[in-house]
Amino acid sequence: MVSKADSSTSAKSKPALKSVAPVKRATAKSDAEATEANGSETGADFIRRKAFVDRIVASSGMKPNAVKSTLDAVLHEIGDALSKGESLNLPPLGKLSVNRKKDIKNGEVLVCKLRRSRPAEKIQPTLAEVDEER
Predict the structure, then answer these.
(1) Are residues 28 and 96 in contact, defined by beta-carbon separation less than 8 angstroms?
(2) Digits of tens for pLDDT over the chain (134 positions)?
(3) Residue 49 to residues 13, 35, 69, 77: CA-CA distances in angstroms?
(4) Is the entire prediction scored with pTM above 0.90?
């Protein structure tokens, strides 16, 4: 006979988390029209936060929790600076400035301009590569 204590203390395993692929925005345009309008073959792909964090973890060698908190802080500060109308010069990202701003009921819409130089050869090794060389 199984007692209540035995059944309530049994270990329950958590289901494994699934990896989510980048989501493609649904539009009425065909892929050919999207390529022509966006100038890229991939159309309007979006990278979700988890996939972005995973990319940063892979390239930096940092722990995921540290990357998440750092990413949140950086994005918050970039958002605040852009809301104030400040321009940002963030190499290797580029120069980011606000072209137009519109206040709406539950937030604001910022139309930004990002000017980037052409990607050069790899300038600096990533932290993971530096660790491998040691």
Answers:
(1) no
(2) 555 544 444 445 545 544 545 545 544 444 444 444 444 455 568 899 999 999 999 999 999 999 999 999 999 999 999 999 999 999 989 999 999 999 999 999 999 999 998 866 665 666 666 666 66
(3) 26, 24, 12, 17
(4) no
